[in-house]
Design the sequence.
C-alpha cells in the first residue's frame, strides 16, 4: 500500500521473488485440491495460485526515491546469477500458522540469489531484518489461530512437481486488503523482472 500522508514520502510494499511458471502452478493446484476436503480446511485462509511465489527477500515499505537504486542493484544481482533448475517439492508448516510447499533442484543457487537480493536492499539503504538462513517455501494457507497443520503437510509431503528453469528475478508489489471483506487476499503485481545471467 502506498503512503498517502502528505508529510511522508510515498512508499510501495515490495519483495523479490522467483515465480513458478503456469504449468507448475496448475500441477500444484491439482495436487492441493484434495486437501480442501480435510477436516479443518475451511478454517484456513488458502492463498490463491495467482499469488504463489518463492520470496527471496522481503523489503516492506520502500520509499519511491529508493526504488531506482534497489532496481539497479537487483538487475546486477540477476546478471551475476545463472539460471537454475527448480521444482515444487514436498510440504511443511511453520507451527500452526502457515502451510507451505517446498522446493528442490538448484537450491544452492536459489539461496545465493536470495542473499544477493537481500544485499541489494542493504546497499540501496533499506533497513533489513537480521540475516537468517533462507528456507525456500511457497505459502499455501494461513491459520487465524493455532491450527494442526500436520495432516495437510503429510498429505502433500510426497508431491514432486515438474522441473523448470528459474530464469528471472522478479520485483513484486504487494497490495494488502483494505476493504475488510471476509476472505479478501493480498494482490500481487510484478513491478520489474530481470533475466538471470544477463
Sequence:
Amino acid at each position: 500500500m502506498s503512503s498517502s500522508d502528505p508529510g511522508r514520502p510515498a512508499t510501495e510494499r515490495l519483495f523479490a521473488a522467483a515465480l513458478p511458471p503456469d504449468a507448475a502452478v496448475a500441477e500444484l493446484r491439482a495436487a492441493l485440491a484434495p486437501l480442501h476436503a480435510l477436516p479443518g480446511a475451511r478454517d484456513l485462509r488458502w492463498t490463491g495460485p495467482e499469488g504463489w511465489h518463492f520470496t527471496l527477500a522481503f523489503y516492506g515499505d520502500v520509499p519511491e526515491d529508493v526504488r531506482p537504486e534497489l532496481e539497479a542493484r537487483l538487475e546486477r544481482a540477476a546478471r551475476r546469477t545463472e539460471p537454475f533448475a527448480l521444482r515444487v517439492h514436498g510440504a511443511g508448516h511453520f507451527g500452526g500458522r502457515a502451510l507451505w510447499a517446498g522446493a528442490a533442484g538448484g537450491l544452492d543457487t536459489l539461496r545465493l540469489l536470495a542473499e544477493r537480493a537481500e544485499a541489494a536492499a542493504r546497499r540501496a539503504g533499506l533497513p533489513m531484518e537480521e540475516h537468517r538462513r533462507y528456507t525456500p517455501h511457497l505459502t499455501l494457507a494461513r491459520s487465524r489461530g493455532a491450527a494442526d497443520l500436520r495432516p495437510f503437510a503429510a498429505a502433500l509431503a510426497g508431491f514432486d512437481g515438474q522441473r523448470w528453469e528459474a530464469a528471472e528475478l522478479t520485483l513484486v508489489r504487494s497490495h494488502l486488503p483494505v476493504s475488510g471483506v471476509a476472505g479478501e487476499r493480498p494482490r500481487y503485481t510484478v513491478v520489474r523482472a530481470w533475466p538471470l545471467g544477463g
Notes: The chain has a mean pLDDT of 90. The helical segments are 22-32, 67-79, 107-123, 150-156. Strands lie at 11-18, 44-46, 54-63, 84-94, 98-105, 138-143, 164-166, 168-175, 187-195. The longest strand covers residues 84-94.
